[in-house]
Design goal:
An eight-stranded mixed sheet has the order 2-9-8-7-6-3-4-5, sandwiched between helices. A four-stranded antiparallel sheet has the order 10-11-14-13. It is 47% helix and 15% strand. The protein is α/β, with parallel strands linked by helices. The protein binds pyridoxal-5'-phosphate.
Amino acid sequence: MISEKLSQATRNMQSSMIRELVSSTRDIPGLISFAGGFPSPKTFPRETLGRLYANVIENEGECVLQYGASEGDNMLKEELLKWEGYSLPHEQILITAGATNAIFYMTLALVEKGDVIICEAPSFLGSLVAFDAVGAELIPVDLDREGIDLAGLQSAVQKVTAEGKKIKFIYTIPDFHNPSGITMSYQRRRDLVKYALSMQIPILEDNPYSRLRFSGTALPTLFRIAHDEFQNTEIVTEIVSFSKILGPGMRLAFAKGSPILIERMCSWQQKINIAPDNISQRVAARFLAEGHMGPHLEKICSFYAPYLEAMLTAMSRYLPPYVQYTKPEGGIFTWVWLPEDMSADELFERAKAEKISFIPGSKFYPVGKEKFNCLRLNFTFSTPEQIEQGIKSLGKLISDFYA
Ligand SMILES: Cc1ncc(COP(=O)(O)O)c(C=O)c1O
């Protein structure tokens, strides 16, 4: 009976394809997995967080066990501003239960059924499904090695505008992109911000990975460029997640942007969630205030660096020369382009039989706009030895498949 009463949007909703793929291989003994997107549990600062959780509940329990403010803990906002080096009013920051919620609130605040969101192709599936659930039309724009293709973006904007549709925002992941591993170049960032300002199209900058940089020089975020070079703190809404730097179980993220938008996003948070977890927010505030973040980030970056090195070395050694792949300086993913006529969805089944798993790239495109000759590899879950062995087998599978 109840199934007949489900809303249309709920009926249309599919379970996460990625979760299904990951769980279809989970129980295979000896499987080498490049599929997931979890941080390594070895990077969680368990001792420090254990002490802080106990202290915060003991000393500040009367406050933090109470309902918190919908916009987030002021002490955490203060610490976040110090950490990032901004002097913004608290009204321009919203703390949320993970980036997923912040992305959803921004979409709810801006998008009506049929409105357009421009996304990168490929892009993070979790966001694509949230946009879809709100009824947005997704217009994908290809990535090149420097990030979103600006000429492609401009012609997409022209086309959509000529059709009379409203573009609500551009969704981008500039640093160590999920799934492609690409980092947007400085010039591309600047050009993108400039173009968005000239067209007055808001940008949603999703930033879960920029602090996971193991080598090379950090680039300014789009929000930073808009703030420093264009004196604008409204065109970009930057969402920073703590999931990959402290632990996704804490469900913590924050958004910075236009005070009007932040206030409307906060209204959604109030209705859906009342407030983010008060205890975790205060723990994160104390973590920052006691100066743990800098050394902790250094530690996890040096922890992950050999994993990336193992991946890139194995890829150069074992993947056939007609295969192309990204060479990130951080994050948790690399991306492989196979020859045009080869399907990674088919390769996935063959790899599963050889106890190797990855995510076929088609899963990261809007429905109906998929590319099949690509795949995502995570390099932070399997050990460096497994990475070497797994990529060796994958290289052989690709060569046999292509022969
Ligand atoms: C690009 C991107 N955005 C958002 C998220 C979700 O982050 P959170 O755990 O903060 O909801 C992820 C997690 O994998 C991600 O890769």
